[in-house]
Amino acid sequence: MTALRTDLETVSVHVAAPVARVVLDRPADHNTVTARMVEELHEVLSRLAQRPELSTVVLTGAGSTFCPGADVRPGRSTREVPAPESYQSARLLHEMPQLTVAAINGGCAGAGFAWAAACDLRIASSRARFASAFLPVGVSGELGIGWTLPRLLGAARANELLFLADRFDAETAARIGFVARVVPDAEWAEGLDRIVAELAGRDTEAVRGLKRNLVDARTMTLGDYVELEGARHRERFTGAAAEQTYARLEAQAATLRRHGAPR
After folding, report:
1. Are 92 and 135 within 8 A, CB to CB?
2. For labeling, which of 100, 121, 240, 246 is most exposed (least CB within 10 Å)?
3. CB under 8 Å to 178, separation ≥6 — which residues?
4. Count of alpha carbons within 13 Å of 81, Cβ hemisphere only?
């Protein structure tokens, strides 16, 4: 098992397989980004990517904020720059073997917005607020935002959010397709736990296999992809995996007999 460091200062990690929760952990400063946070998040994600018992990685913020980007308050900014390789945290969120879920519990802008965009799913509290926030502070973007956002929302919407940089709320984020679910803030902890528990209840190898399929599909022709997808699908019905697959199919059939097929 790949061990995690115990001396992290800006990120905390809680692992209860098959789920790992990664927390941007500077609540006194609203989880604003520092060079150390970027580097620690990259290291944590790199190590979690090597854990085969994990199907899901949830990224969230400590307290009532997700991550509003860099601290631009007078006297608070520093000239520290993260190590170049640490910007690959966005690629890890996008490509690591686990399903990645951004649990957006509050303000989400700048680097936080880019990290959320790199995840596979985004779940938001109703009190969450969003903005790209790069141009207003004189930078063009980071952490893959120019690659991930157009693929999520289309070029026109991505251009709008990046160039105009308007703030928008959780309902708007759901309407434009940036977030998959909005949970009432009063029910945030319980609602998020239900969603994560549902994902955790899925077969770990099936979740990881679907993630591999989706990542591979972005760089393959349809014919090549169908061949690869079919081979992976057949693996679930042969060898050691077959017994578990058939057991799940039988359990699902029993559920349908009790409650009826969905209409």
Report:
1. no
2. 240
3. 117, 122, 130, 152, 153
4. 3
